[in-house]
Structure formats: structure tokens, C-alpha cells
Amino acid sequence: MFYLLLKYVSLSAAVLAGLYASLLGLLALPSFQAHVVYLHKVQLTWFKDLDIPESFGLLRNQVTPFTIESSEGEALYAWHILPIGLYRQHESALLAEPAGFVSDFKSRVSFNLLRDDPETRLIIHFHGAAGTVGSGYRVPNYHALSAGQAQKIHVLTFDYRGFGRSKGTPSERGLCSDAIAAVDWAMDVVGIPPSRIVIFGQSMGTAVSLAVLEHYASQSPPVSFAGSVLVAPFADLATLVSTYSVAGTIPILSPVARFPSIFKYLSTFIRDKWSSKDRIARYVRANEANGQKYRLTLIHAEDDWDIPWHHTEIIFWHAVDAAVPGGISYDELDRMKSDTGTDLGAAGSVVEWRTVNGVIREEIPKTGLHNFIMGNPVVTMAVMRILATADPVLE
């Protein structure tokens, strides 16, 4: 009986090892790897029509579905979300318009409200992997982002190439290009200055956000935004897959992460690097060198099982290290955080690093998981804090 059981266990282990080896082989294929990294074919809209935002719990014409042209001339599907207070003020005019997708956003009341108010603030929202602009906790996230100024804070969100109704195949270069196209649309077509724009990203969207920030900081002259909020960032893709499991159950490289030489070799097959820790360092360094103002807020729940919160600690260190002439070690920063950080008890902890030019803030709430946190007041407060710093009138 014992030998029969041993034979069964050995056979099962061999089958699992074979399946995992097959998975590793498939991951070396760029097309398969893109599906695993971006999960862009997972819609998560539950048979709802994105052209009918009301089916996602939003008011009639509070959201305008439209498209933004990418640098390659493709259409990026987008939503513009009006803040609820402003919607209430113009409810009659908004209800008089046809609902649904519009081919000419400029002809709409909501576009005029976004463009014509000199006190308008815009959150450009970069979502994470999987799903669309209407999926999961993203709609509550839009409410949280604009809640601090219900008459002034608009939200622009869109689906990257390959996601939802946006055509194409996702890649690091492609997503960065799409994000820059969305920001350019806000600044050039709508005419909103970067000083009134907040960059927001969650999960994969934090990596996209940092690519955007670095791109504009390296322009001549540099372009500075009001600030940025990054929720659940990751250090880089290789570090992420060393612990990540698809849907919390299917490991990617975590089983081989304990063997450094094998893991290092397999990491060479990762096509898109998404090195956020390096991008944030270059972004901070560029702003410090150019004397540009910047405000970074990193938020990560301790109970995030998708992306462990220690990724934010790594990114925070790289940002601070870039802000300090001569740099600072991880251990030195950790001691500083113990001495100067604020313990909020059950609400978590907060620490800030300030320079003449910038503020780098790390917030670690105790709870919020990976997605639920997006609708929490900690996100609303982060946006309010950035906007009030950029323009004290909004305090």
C-alpha cells in the first residue's frame, strides 16, 4: 500500500513538473507572455456594454465614451467622467443630449465643461492589467478620485491597445506610447496645463505612469504635473513574477526564484522589463537637476496578496536615493523612517521625504487589498493633498 501511494505521488509530481516546464516554455514565446503579463483578453465587464456607462452605476451622460488617436493613428477607447457636483449644476443640459458613444467629443457639453473652466483639475487614470475602463473596482475609483472637489476634478481613463475596444497588441513600448497620446490629448486638444493634471496609476498602471512622468521630465523644457498617485506599484517585472501567481493560484517564476542562477537565466526571456524602480529614480533625478517641482505619493496596502507591499518600499528607496546628493542606503532610510515616520495605528503608517523641489510620500494602510483600496478615502486624500499643495486655493 505504501509503495502504491509513493508511486502515485511520484507520478503526480512528475506530471506537475512536466506541466510547469511546458508553461515555462510557453512563457518564452512573446505572444503567450503578453497574454500572461497583461491579461488583456480578460474583459471583466460581465456582458455589460461599455458604451452604456449607466449600466456600471453611473448617471446618464455623466460619462462620455469617445476615442483618442494613438501615435500610430489607432483609436484608443476612452471615458471622460464628470465630477458629481458639476454634473448636478448642468444636469438639464446633459440630459438633453443623446447618450452613448460619441464620435465628436468636442461637440458635447461635458467637453466644454472640461475645457472652459480655468479651475478644472484633471486626473488622468492609468489602469492595471486585465479588464477595461468599466471593470471591477475602477468605477468606485473614479468616484474616490473626484470626491475631494466635486465641482472641479474630472477623470480621464482609457483602455491601452489590446484592452477592451482598443485594437492592437500590448507591449511596454506600446502602452507607454498610448499613455503619452492620452496626456498630449488633454494638454493639446483640451488645453489643460500640466500644472492642473494629476497622474494616477494602479498596479500595472503605476509602471505606465512612471514611464509618462519620466518622458515629460526629460523634455526641453521639462513638463511638470501637479503630482502623481501610484497605488500598488511594483519594482520591476522580474521581481514581480518571482512572487506573483496568476489569479492567486498559478505561479509564474516563484518556484524557480529560490535558484538564483536559473531564475536569472529565465529572466532574460522577459520581453517587457517595466523597471519602475529605475524610472522613478531617473524622474526624481531629472527634476532635482532641473529645479522642477514634483509630488509623488506611493500607496500600498499591507494585505495586498497580488503585489506584496515591500515593492513600494523598494521604489520609495530608489526615489529618495535619487533625491539625496551622494545617495542614501536602504538601511539608512529604514532608520530614518522609524525615527520620523507617523504610526497611524490600525490605519497604517506614513512617511515623507522632502527636498527644496519635491515631496515623496509613502503610505502603507493596514488594509485595502490590491483593488478594494482604490475606492477608499486614502486615495481621495492623496489627490486633495497634491492639488492643495499645487494650488492653496483648493485647500
Question: What is the fold's blueprint, element by element?
Answer:
Elements: H1 2-27, H2 30-38, E1 63-69, E2 75-81, H3 84-89, H4 91-95, H5 109-116, E3 121-126, H6 138-146, E4 153-158, H7 172-190, E5 197-202, H8 204-217, E6 227-231, H9 237-241, E7 245-246, E8 250-251, H10 260-267, H11 276-290, E9 294-299, H12 310-323, H13 330-340, E10 342-343, E11 349-354, E12 358-364, H14 377-390
Parallel strand pairs: 3-4, 3-5, 5-6, 6-9, 9-12
Antiparallel strand pairs: 1-2, 2-4, 7-8, 10-11, 11-12
Helix pairs in contact: 6-14, 7-8, 8-11, 11-12
Please explain how this structure is put together:
Helix 6 packs parallel to helix 14 (377-390). Helix content is 41%, strand content 16%. The longest helix is centred in the first third of the chain and has 26 residues, at 2-27. The protein is globular. The chain has helices at residues 2-27, 30-38, 84-89, 91-95, 109-116, 138-146, 172-190, 204-217, 237-241, 260-267, 276-290, 310-323, 330-340, 377-390; strands spanning 63-69, 75-81, 121-126, 153-158, 197-202, 227-231, 245-246, 250-251, 294-299, 342-343, 349-354, 358-364. The strands form two sheets. A ten-stranded mixed β-sheet has the order 1-2-4-3-5-6-9-12-11-10, with helices on both faces. A two-stranded antiparallel ribbon has the order 7-8.
Total number of helices: 14
- Unreliable segments of 5+ consecutive residues: none
The assigned structural class equals: alpha/beta
User: Can you give the helix content as a percent range?
Assistant: 40-55%
Anisotropy-based shape: globular
Mean pLDDT, to the nearest integer, reads: 92
Question: Biggest sheet, strands in spatial order?
Answer: 1-2-4-3-5-6-9-12-11-10
N-to-C SSE string, H for helix and E for strand: HHEEHHHEHEHEHEHEEHHEHHEEEH
In total, the number of strands is 12
Please give the alpha-carbon distance between the first and last residues: 74 Å
Largest sheet: 10 strands, mixed
Q: What Rg do the Cα atoms give? A: 22 Å
Q: What is the beta-strand fraction? A: 15-25%
